[in-house]
Automatic annotation (TrEMBL):
Pfam families reported for this sequence: COX2, COX2_TM, Cytochrom_C
Catalytic activity: 4 Fe(II)-[cytochrome c] + O2 + 8 H(+)(in) = 4 Fe(III)-[cytochrome c] + 2 H2O + 4 H(+)(out)
Name of the protein described by the UniProt record: Cytochrome c oxidase subunit 2
A biological process from GO: ATP synthesis coupled electron transport
Cofactor or coenzyme needed: Cu cation
InterPro entries xrefs: CcO_II, CcO_II-like_C, Copper_CuA, Cupredoxin, CuRO_CcO_Caa3_II, Cyt_c-like_dom, Cyt_c_oxidase_su2, Cyt_c_oxidase_su2_TM_dom
Cytochrome oxidase subunit II copper A binding domain boundaries: 127-239
Segments traversing the membrane: 49-71, 92-116
Enzyme nomenclature, EC number: 7.1.1.9
Amino acid sequence: MKLWKTAWRFLPLSLLVFVLTGCLGETNLTALDPKGPQSQWLFDNMLLSLYIMALVTIVVFAIFFIILAKYRRAPGDDEIPKQVHGNTALEITWTVIPIILLTILAVPTITGQFMLADTEPDPEIGEDTVYITVTGHQFWWQFDYENEGFTAGQEVYIPVGEKVIFELHAQDVMHSFWVPALGGKLDTIPGITNHMWLEADEPGVFKGKCAELCGPSHALMDFKLIALERDEYDAWVAGMQAEVQEPTETLAQQGRDVFEASCIGCHAVGGMGSATGPALSDFANREVIAGYLEFTDENLEAWIRDPESLKQGNNMPAFPDMSDQDMEALIAYLRSLDVQNN
């Protein structure tokens, strides 16, 4: 009786676990809502494994309760049951069935591994295939479009419906590049080059994460993958390739001077970026600062003055003594870095 009372105490916790398992998570940040061929394959195999597991569980528990009810000891029955030493047919059955189930899982798994490892360009796309070099830093992402001649930071753009090839590197420690809605994760390791490909079935903003503990701000090492129709993607590429326009407002012009005196050593604007800080060519087009802060003037100033308080362990120097006038001008210049206006 005490055992049942103890078990009832865990019932609310068990119900909570079942409720939480039904949560899909944040939009475009879940593997349970696939938006590409890789993620669809992963999702289908998760379902296959779940169905097989459920079938085995139901059969085993059914047999267990049938035996428990049919062969339970009756009151006053002290007779020792008949002892059975081996049953060849039964032993073959419970050996063959797991082999069949494992084969059902193994066939799509093995064939899928070849599909995931195929980083050759799609013959239908040919020379128009997009190649992107990804470098993981503490705690931000660098995206080099070497064929196009420019660098993007924190946000990576790809064309919809096309196989995009990624070359993965790490600058400092091990990271892991992961866009849950589009595919699986793959480590970026210092000194080792890994390759993967992703494809988006539809336009959208897909959130990415670092999936390898890499330091105190690992949880804030987010990025966005933005999938555009091919014509929109080509327009974005043209904007990134275009010469950076001089700011037209006086305040932004003053901010450019502040930027060149304080920031240009780490942050590139236009062309290929450095490995010190994220490229800022399209900074004004972003929705967040430092990978997670809402893009507001207040947050931007707080980030520039004391980045360590907002993202522990990052390498950006603080500018606590920058005058309010210079700060206002610098923010105006950063807000002018809009590739859509190039």
